[in-house]
Amino acid sequence: MRPHVLIIGCGFGGLEAARALRTADVDITLVDKTNHHLFQPLLYQVATAGLSAPSIAAPIRHLFRGQRNVTTLMGEIVAIDANARTATLKDGATLRWDHLIVAAGATHSYFGRDDWAEHAPGLKTLSDAFEIRRRVLLAFEAAEREDDPVQRAALLQFVVVGGGPTGVELAGTFAEIARHTLPGEFRRIDPRQARVLLVEGSPRVLQAMPERLSERAREQLGALGVDVRLNARVTGIDAEGLDITTAAGPERLHSRCVVWAAGVAASPLGRALADATGCTLDRAGRVVVEPDLSVKGQANIQVIGDLAAAQSHAPGQPPKPVPGVSPGAKQMGRHAAANIQRRLRGEATQAFRYRDYGNLATIGRHSAVVDLGTPAGPLRFSGLPAWLFWLFAHVYFLIGFRNRFVVLVDWAWAYWTHDRNARVVAGAGLSEASPARDAQA
Amino acid sequence: MRPHVLIIGCGFGGLEAARALRTADVDITLVDKTNHHLFQPLLYQVATAGLSAPSIAAPIRHLFRGQRNVTTLMGEIVAIDANARTATLKDGATLRWDHLIVAAGATHSYFGRDDWAEHAPGLKTLSDAFEIRRRVLLAFEAAEREDDPVQRAALLQFVVVGGGPTGVELAGTFAEIARHTLPGEFRRIDPRQARVLLVEGSPRVLQAMPERLSERAREQLGALGVDVRLNARVTGIDAEGLDITTAAGPERLHSRCVVWAAGVAASPLGRALADATGCTLDRAGRVVVEPDLSVKGQANIQVIGDLAAAQSHAPGQPPKPVPGVSPGAKQMGRHAAANIQRRLRGEATQAFRYRDYGNLATIGRHSAVVDLGTPAGPLRFSGLPAWLFWLFAHVYFLIGFRNRFVVLVDWAWAYWTHDRNARVVAGAGLSEASPARDAQA
Predict the structure, then answer these.
(1) What is the pLDDT of residues B98-123, one digit of tens each?
(2) Would an 8 Å CB–CB cutoff place A69 in contact with chain B?
(3) Strands (E), B154-207
């Protein structure tokens, strides 16, 4: 019988690992909670009604249709037994494995304030994206029906918490929707009166970027109409808005649409793995892995992607933490697959080395920042050239030819018309509890 | 102050009525429960993962962006006061009107067996379509994890109740998915073993069609692999399947995915209108209207579309019921708008006359039936030519240029590859309670 490789999670890490084992003499089972691989870097476009869900999501089993050594199963792994070499699904079914790759990713963290979740959804899954889309679009609908100017202003104030790449993208796109997409479609409100705030706890946005590019991003956000609040700590979130504290003191922000892009926590499977193997978790719940990505004392278990607290080991340099970005997850996926093949050949595994090709973030139409490492030194640029670079890089990396083409069509259309193609909310979701009075007034 | 026209519902009828009042000297308020106009004839494509929701749905306020006399409001009208000339929204807000067009459409009817609804969703809204998509795709996922052959067969048996156009489209497309889209993607089941049943109470499918075309449709369904059960009465539906009675006696059909395409009931707003005006409702809850589409004794209230039990009045011919199809709703919408303009000019209203340009229904790839009225007599054809005719007619009538183009791209792709582009289910929805055992076996 061929060795059996179990891969948990089909994000960028799990997908690459399974692909890299294409020609290996192993049987692979790939388990994911959903039926699709998600192109996460464009998820904010689904949340902001620019793209439809199928444009950025591909059925996992379709991606592996031609790779005969892969069996795809939809389900959630809840426990791992390192001695028996099994994994247990939520319904109690078990899967045996000889080699295990855990790529279960991350989820939101509200820093212990889980009661904030219902008032400030995060953005990790398609369901999250639909919920944010619903809240943003229906806030404008409710404002059109609202006569009280104070309530109306609260409905037209949008707050994004967290100034990382996702927060910056969301805030920039919300501002674009208010300024360019919706004007002319309402009769009682002016969507341009909407305010978008970006609340960030540290002194700058996009902390992974060089300071100069953070400053450029802040300027571009300002030009799009986003009010950026730096050094601002969130102290409370409820159905009516949020409380922040800045150097100027406490402040109340009234809003019916708050989005959480601040905290990331490792998948609960990290805890399950620690229970099973005694491995160490870091503060964010990530599994601290060995240089070769394996779990301490468990040569047959590797952890990759956002669930791994991994180090990059370049010859002659001190180890450096691997950043939580998709190229990191993909490289770890390929590395884990290669390590399994080395072990099957009786060779020693190798330490993981992260190759950093740079960093890029988009802010809105014509706005982005790019930081590339080149042999001649760092190449940094922003504005329109950075935006074009970002656009083509993302379309290029999108899964599947057809998606790429449809996404390009959608974007070309959106570019010329300022329109957004997915402004559709399923169901009658408008809260009828809002104090709209005689809507005919 | 200009006369105020209130239009309730933005399906085909309400949309056409508002458009036809483009140049009229009136203020129009258009109220809909959702934020989008839905191109209902292609909703089955969303349910069967062929199209994404935004491809067939357009934001209502975007459609009326340029028509300045229209105010769009999202909300649900729950009561009408004919004397005070107001309509009440769910949250208690009221809208005044001088002329009222009620175009609230229809919903599913389970013939008094509302407990069947949870086991057999119908197809009227985008939410319905997502629910059917989820059930169909996840049935195959659960079957791949199922070891028990009896349970597996139940998971791979799909039942559509009702042989009208929607039922025929759904059954034909389910069969295509099983035979052409999914094979090769599973390792433990063969999707071609899936069975699709179409259960119809009468002796033929597509009853609105001439008998010969009904027979053609049945043949084409058979060729696609659909098992058509005619003269079959449904006596019970539960979580495990349904009970039917045919000439051969009672029969139990095991299925985890039953779709309801059998009964249509008028919107509950018909009842509200009857309470307000004393008008008559027919057995399906539709409002019996006067020849000019107005409500008896209420010249300022017109009812159109699926909510109206209307007659066509052709000169020299006895009145004929207007069929519940989209051309009927559109024509009624334009007629109601014209009647309002006649009244504003002090003229008499006119009786409605339905112009029947024919009838068409699709069954699946290369399969459709068409029945056209031409000056030279009826023109009837089926198979590939009918399918091409259906395809271009539907793409032509789709709302908005961009949608048409993207839908054509999606279809061209689906045509060549047998792939379906929207096979995405948001969230982890697979029932973990199914008795899958050691899924590794």
Answers:
(1) 999 999 999 989 988 999 999 999 99
(2) no
(3) 157-161, 195-199
Amino acid at B364: G
pLDDT digits (tens, 9 = 90+) for A216-232: 999 999 999 999 999 99
Is residue A18 within 8 Å of A28, Cβ to Cβ?
yes
User: How far apart (Å, rounded) are the C-alpha atoms in residues B261 and A345?
Assistant: 58
Question: Strands, DSSP E only, in B200-317?
Answer: 226-229, 233-238, 241-246, 249-254, 257-260, 264-266, 287-288, 294-295, 298-303, 308-309, 311-312
**Cα-Cα end-to-end distance for chain A:** 76
Q: How far apart are CA A348 and CA A354, in angstroms?
A: 19
Query: B94 to chain A: nearest residue by CA?
Result: A438
User: What average pLDDT does this structure show over B219-225?
Assistant: 95
What is the residue-averaged pLDDT of chain A? 91
- Chain B CA closest to residue A72: B186
| A405/B405 touch (CB, cutoff 8 Å), yes or no | no
Beta pairing, strands B99-102 & B94-96: unpaired
**Residue A387 to residues A81, A325, A392, Cα–Cα distance (Å):** 47, 19, 9
**Residue A352 near residue A308 (C-beta atoms within 8 A):** no
Question: Measuring CA to CA, which residue among B48, B306, B326, B324 is closest to residue B169?
Answer: B48
* pLDDT interval class at A441 (50, 70, 90): very low
HEC-encoded secondary structure of A18-39: HHHCCCCCCEEEEEECCCEEEC
B65 at the A interface (CB within 8 A)? yes
Separation of alpha carbons B147 and A164, rounded Å? 46
Answer whether A53 touches B (CB < 8 Å).
yes
Query: Out of A74, A75, A406, whose CB is closest to B406?
Result: A406
> Does residue B433 register a pLDDT over 50?
no
pTM of the model: 0.92
SS3 A413: helix
| DSSP designation for A400 | S
- Provide the pairing of β-strand A264-266 with A106-108: antiparallel
Residue A84 has pLDDT above 90, yes or no: yes
Spot the catalytic one: A146, A169, A176, A290: A169
Q: Is A219 a catalytic residue?
A: no
Please tell me if residue B291 touches chain A, with a CB cutoff of 8 Å.
Answer: no
DSSP A336-361: HHHHHHHHHTTPPP---------EEE
| Range 161-200 of A in CB contact (< 8 A) with B | 184-188
Residues in CB range of B41: below 8 A, 6 or more apart? B326, B394, B397
Judge whether residue B256 has pLDDT over 60: yes
> Beta strands of A274-325 (E only): which ranges?
287-288, 294-295, 298-303, 308-309, 311-312, 320-321
Neighbour tally for B292: CB within 10 Å = 20
What is the pLDDT at residue B427? 66
Q: Give residue A302's identity as a one-letter amino acid code.
A: Q
Token code pair at residue A133: 């889309």
CB B7 within 8 A of CB B14: yes
d(CA A51, CA A55): 6
Quick one: which of B22, B27, B28 has its CA closest to B8?
B28
Cβ–Cβ gap B439/A73 under 8 Å: yes
Q: Which residues 6+ apart lie within 8 Å of A287 measured at CB?
A: A102, A266, A270, A273, A274, A279, A280, A281, A295, A303, A307, A308, A309
By the 8 A CB rule, do B231 and B246 touch? Answer: yes
Domains and CATH numbers, chain B: 4-33+75-108+265-344 (3.50.50.60), 114-262 (3.50.50.100)
B36 touching A (Cβ < 8 Å): yes
Tokens of A72: 């795809």
